Amino acid sequence: MNIKYIGYSFTVTPKEPATEILIAQLGFAGFESFVENEDGVTAYIQEADWNAGMLEDIQILNSNEFNISYKEEVIEQTNWNSEWEKNFNPIQVDDLVSIRAPFHENPNLKYDIVIEPKMSFGTGHHETTHMMVQHLLDMDLTNKKTLDMGCGTGILAIFAEMKGAQPIDAIDIDNWCYENSLENVTRNNCSHISVYEGDASLLINKEYDVIIANINRNILLNDMQSYMNCLAKNGTILFSGFYQEDIPIIDAEVSKYGLNIDKIIERNNWVAIKYIFE
Ligand SMILES: C[S@@+](CC[C@H](N)C(=O)[O-])C[C@H]1O[C@@H](n2cnc3c(N)ncnc32)[C@H](O)[C@@H]1O
């Protein structure tokens, strides 16, 4: 018997960061899978886990800060799978890196990352992930001890290993991301990545040459001291997950530790900054 799913298509204005928050809250409420699109996201929950009033408890839907509307549909699992597959388009970064699902054809670029994202953030569609891949592409990571903080699908840790980094710690606070990163690490035959579920408290007594953190402005600011405590002398940091207008506040904090901006990449007002000691 096919499992029935209920799907809700949410139209979210402005799309970020509201969509990310919405996905997190829906995930917590039992929604199983998410397909992001131009207008927002379609979220799926098994009919057995669904109840009529459940959206009333989703906090962000009651907030005045964002404008979120939705419509509901019931679908069979078979349709839902093809819907998911239809919506995850393979992408390429600078004609050198392909990010695709297992069912996509391999375009045979220099780097091929295979991700089955399920619920976790990080298919490369998001501007911030794309820019972090661009930064990493430019760097010599050979034998660099690396941290991927807020690893999502594990995509950046996986790419770091492909670029020669090792050993690599990939950490995410979310259990689904932890599980999904483990799966994707195996899928990409990575052997130098350790995945952990948790937050900055796991960084005590650690040391990294390269820290990658694509999270959001407030978490980066909040956990800055922990990141800096585990950054090796002459290390490099890549930060993303915030907007152009957040640069001054991030930079004011980072510069206290003697790091300077080496390069900023911008896409659709999102930024990714590379920091080095000079
Ligand atoms: C913007 S996504 C980035 C995912 C992936 N690194 C990428 O670039 O596509 C941010 C991730 O950080 C995780 N996260 C949020 N707060 C965190 C925290 N305090 N410590 C560790 N991970 C956190 C979220 O669960 C989410 O997977």
TrEMBL record:
Q: Which GO terms describe its molecular function?
A: protein methyltransferase activity
Q: Which reaction equation describes what this protein catalyses? A: L-lysyl-[protein] + 3 S-adenosyl-L-methionine = N(6),N(6),N(6)-trimethyl-L-lysyl-[protein] + 3 S-adenosyl-L-homocysteine + 3 H(+)
Q: Report the principal subcellular site.
A: cytoplasm
Q: What is this protein called?
A: Ribosomal protein L11 methyltransferase
SUPFAM superfamilies named in the record: S-adenosyl-L-methionine-dependent methyltransferases (SSF53335)
Subcellular location per UniProt equals: Cytoplasm
Q: What is its EC number?
A: 2.1.1.-
- What gene name is given for the protein in this entry? prmA
* UniProt-listed InterPro entries: Ribosomal_L11_MeTrfase_PrmA, Ribosomal_PrmA_MeTrfase, SAM-dependent_MTases_sf
Its biological purpose is as follows: Methylates ribosomal protein L11.
Q: Which organism is it from?
A: Lutibacter oricola
At the top of the EC hierarchy, this enzyme's class is transferase
Keywords carried by this UniProt record: Cytoplasm, Methyltransferase, Ribonucleoprotein, Ribosomal protein, S-adenosyl-L-methionine, Transferase
Q: Name one GO biological process term.
A: methylation
Write down the Pfam families for this protein, in alphabetical order.
PrmA (PF06325)
- Top-rank taxon of the source lineage equals Bacteria
User: Which Gene Ontology terms of cellular component type are present?
Assistant: cytoplasm; ribosome
Cite the binding residues for S-adenosyl-L-methionine: T129, G150, D172, N214
Q: Which family does it belong to?
A: Belongs to the methyltransferase superfamily. PrmA family.
